[in-house]
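Look over both lines before class:
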Amino acid sequence: MVKKISLSNWNKDEEIFHKNRFELFLKNYKSYFDNPYLLTTRQSFSASLARIKIYELVKNVKGSIVECGVHRGNNLLLFYHLLLCNEPTSFNDKIIGFDTFEGFRSIDKKKDNKKNKNTDWSDVDYNHLKKVIELNQLNDLIKHIPRVELIKGDAVKTIPKYKLEHKSLIIRLLYLDFDLYKSTLVALKNFYELVPSGGIVVFDEIGNEKFVGETLAFKEFFTNKRIKLKKFEFEPWISYFIKE
């Protein structure tokens, strides 16, 4: 069965839809190979479309793409394919993903929703994702220089360490999808200053009470900063702003 996290938005009809969709895949999985849109959902497609539009806004801005919250790597690989197709020789610009790959590890009892669980988003195979990235590297024009990095561990610890060890890091797109207060705030404190003018900061759960920690981190960090927060009319989760 398809695993639901503790704070899923699915209603009964959607549960039936996802159950039948999963069973259909198991019976006909060969038909879906290289035909991803046969099985995608309206929600998944709109999320991908939003990310493509965001990438188009920063395509000509210098820097790497940092995704804070990778889960199974679908969006990480989407950004990688966008880089492969649009910037085949930009070997200094990378896709960098931060995640525990084991679920939530920095839940704040006061700031985060009490329904958040350590097991949320733990349904991921880190080694499998690494193999998928290595396989795609064979199809990269520049095969000998890896352009995707996975940083495994609690971001509260790994982000400051990564920043300290990578002095040349510039971030054109900072995608915040940690859901939690502490990790989101640490990402902003360490990475926001590395986003140049014209770069974009994206939030995946702003204004959502189920993941209120992300919103509280946003409010705390940007208390004295004026930004113009934008959204897409077709995608209910994502909000973003262009740094001036």
In short: The two ends are 46 Å apart (CA to CA). The beta strands are 64-68, 95-99, 148-152, 171-176, 200-203, 230-232, 235-242.
